[in-house]
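Dear support,

I submitted the protein below through the web form. The confirmation email said the job was done, but the results page showed an empty box. After a refresh the structure appeared. I'm attaching both so you can tell me whether what I see now is the final result or a partial one.
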Amino acid sequence: MQMDKKLEERMGANGVTKIVGFYFSVLEHEWTIILEANSAHGIETLCIEAGISAFNTVKIVPLTEFGAALRRIRGN
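What the results page shows now:
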């Protein structure tokens, strides 16, 4: 519960604008958090400040919505 509070408190300061989804597998001790953010560095800092990285490996994977990628490729 403290980590959730820290996430909410520190999001804005780290350029994280939204938690889109937050999932975890209790049996595998694996979390998947989908965020909207200005940079991967901000996500990394948020994970450190919230305490997530203290007991987990953090893997940041930048994603682009498929339709947006197509528009960029087409020049629209």
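Response: this is the final, complete result; the empty box was a page-load delay. DSSP finds three helices and two strands in the chain.
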